[in-house]
Amino acid sequence: MQVDGPRIRRQRERSGQGLRAFAATVGISPSHLSRIERGLRAPQPEVLAAIAGGLDCPIEQLEGAPNDERDQHDLALHDDEGTRGPRP
Are 67 and 2 in contact (CB under 8 A)? Predict the structure, then answer.
């Protein structure tokens, strides 16, 4: 299961919970939660369940796009002249 870290962050912020307080509620360190929200780490199933519980939402709501959709989106964002300069 792919987790959408930025979606977790948006939901946490919408709920009015700060990073440190929410991390304490979930039982992980603020730095670990930050890495999850930035998509640098995938949470263990029990941590994901705690995050979903803390956000009062089903785990499925925290899922991201399938890998192929995500890869195509990333390529579209990074394969234009604005980020790499003009093509030879």
Answer: yes
Give the number of other Cβ atoms within 10 Å of residue 55's Cβ. Answer: 21
| Residues of the domain holding 80 | 5-84
The helix, strand and coil proportions of the chain, stated in percent and rounded to the nearest 5, come to: 65, 0, 35
Express each pLDDT in 72-82 by its tens digit: 444 444 444 44
As for how many domains the chain has, the answer is 1
pTM of the model: 0.70
Angle, vertex CA 45, rays to CA 40 and CA 46, nearest 5: 115
d(CA 60, CA 3): 9
pLDDT reported for residue 13:
96
